[in-house]
Design brief:
- The structure is a single chain.
- The chain is α+β, with helices and mostly antiparallel strands and about 425 residues long.
- Helices cover about 30% and strands about 20% of the residues.
- It has 10 helices and 18 strands.
- An 8-stranded mixed beta sheet has the order 1-2-8-3-9-16-10-15, covered by helices on one side.
- A hairpin with a 5-residue loop joins strand 1 and strand 2.
- The radius of gyration is 23 Å and the shape is globular.
- The two termini are about 30 Å apart.
- About 45% of the residues are buried.
Length: about 425
């Protein structure tokens, strides 16, 4: 791809990140926020403009479109998926992206007035981007590369293929989903209407990332019911819900937390605590790659709740655990050819594949269990969900090239018969 493609891709990305699409777990609507509707409609118009067919935005805000096949050979339909929403950790409103051409490898002042600096001292991988065109925040918002970089790369790849009909390919489907960041991205995804044999989410991090394993995930909501009395006369009467919550957290193994684990290590993550003496609510994430250990972790929370009930009373601690998604490896291993194609595509482009598990959720985790095997490939972003987020435009071009190369290989690679079943 040419420098013009890099410019076009960058311009697309800059347009997308300025649409506020932060999702909201407290709302039941789908999408959960109106900004996601705005981006969905914008994307639908753009997909039509570049020449895709069957462009739809359904009643839940899911965008789908088709790049028709330009070969008569039997080729499985492949899909590419990215999510439109941004994380709830930090605001995605009023994003003011900054473009740094030929980054020199040193500190980047994001916001001089607030003394916010993106530095390789804090983020050592940053120095490896010397010479790249980087896109950063202004230090007051997140950027939204997760996952608007993936959207820009998919749209750019489709645009390239339409303008280069000499590249033979089968039918390609693209999909853009709402509310991935709050765990609902695949909940109302119409796999049958999408009609792909398999797909890839373009929702990974640095160059070469290729993932087909994810956590088994559950969320726990623990409610502590206290009894409030004036603190001056509270002896033998007060039951402090906040102290119960603190006691519960203290029983979680400190070494099994996000800040102490990596690779294939699971964790407990108490991430929200709200309340007062009378009533408190703790929300905790449970993550584990192995299904048996996953069940053990859920059972461990139930044991902690039972232990504390013996101290504070049966009725004072309520525990609710809900499974969120499962390790997509279970569904992808039987069709590993789709991972091999992505690996080969990267190698053909001189990219070293970096195969590692997803330490988080992607739409692909749920879609794989809904009948659409969906590994994840890199989109190029770093430091997701916060003010220090950035992405390399050069890596974004590589991601778009990888999408094109996967599509080209799918048209030429022999696949097991089962992979064709959803054509």
């Amino acid at each position: 791809m040419t420098m013009n493609v890099k410019q076009e891709l960058t311009e697309r990305f800059l347009r997308y990140v300025q649409v506020d699409t932060q999702s909201d777990s407290k709302r039941d609507s789908c999408p959960s926020t109106p900004g996601q509707w705005n981006l969905a409609r914008m994307l639908a118009d753009e997909l039509k403009a570049i020449g895709l067919e069957d462009v739809t935005v359904d009643d839940n805000g899911y965008v789908m479109a088709t790049l028709p096949a330009n070969t008569d050979e039997p080729v499985p339909t492949v899909g590419f998926i990215a999510h439109m929403d941004t994380a709830t950790d930090m605001t995605g409103a009023g994003v003011k992206p900054q473009v740094i051409d030929r980054y020199d490898g040193g500190d980047i002042v994001l916001n001089e007035a607030q003394n916010i600096v993106l530095s390789p001292r804090d983020f050592p991988e940053l120095a490896g981007y010397a010479g790249h065109t980087l896109i950063t925040t202004d230090g007051t918002t997140l950027l939204g590369a997760d996952d608007k970089a993936g959207i820009a790369e998919i749209v750019t790849a489709m645009d390239w293929l339409i303008r280069h009909p000499d590249i033979k390919h089968g039918k390609v489907r693209v999909g853009f989903t709402p509310d991935e960041e709050i765990g609902r991205g695949a909940h109302r995804f119409d796999v049958e209407a999408f009609g792909a044999a398999f797909a890839y989410t373009v929702d990974g991090g640095p160059l070469g990332e290729l993932q087909y394993e994810s956590f088994n995930a559950a969320s726990a909501r623990i409610t502590f019911v206290g009894k409030n009395v004036h603190p001056g006369t509270a002896k033998g009467k007060m039951v402090n819900a906040l102290r119960m919550a603190a006691a519960f957290i203290s029983k979680l193994p400190a070494q099994e937390s996000p800040e102490q684990t990596d690779g294939y290590e699971g964790f407990y993550h108490p991430h929200v605590l709200e309340g007062n003496v009378e009533k408190a609510e703790l929300r905790c994430l449970i993550r584990e790659f192995d299904r048996n250990r996953f069940e053990e972790r859920k059972a461990a929370l139930a044991r902690i709740a039972d232990e504390l009930r013996t101290v504070y009373g049966e009725e004072r601690i309520l525990l609710e655990i809900k499974d969120q998604y499962y390790n997509m490896r279970e569904k992808i291993e039987p069709v590993m050819a789709i991972v091999d194609v992505a690996r080969q595509a990267m190698e053909n482009l001189g990219i070293e594949p970096v195969i590692r598990p997803v330490r988080g959720g992607t739409d692909g985790s749920q879609l794989s269990f809904m009948g659409l095997p969906t590994p994840n490939i890199f989109a190029g972003g770093e430091n997701f969900h916060g003010r220090y987020e950035y992405v390399s435009a050069d890596t974004m071009v590589k991601a778009a090239e990888t999408i094109v190369e996967i599509i080209r290989l799918v048209a030429s690679a022999p696949f097991p018969p089962g992979i064709h079943k959803m054509q």
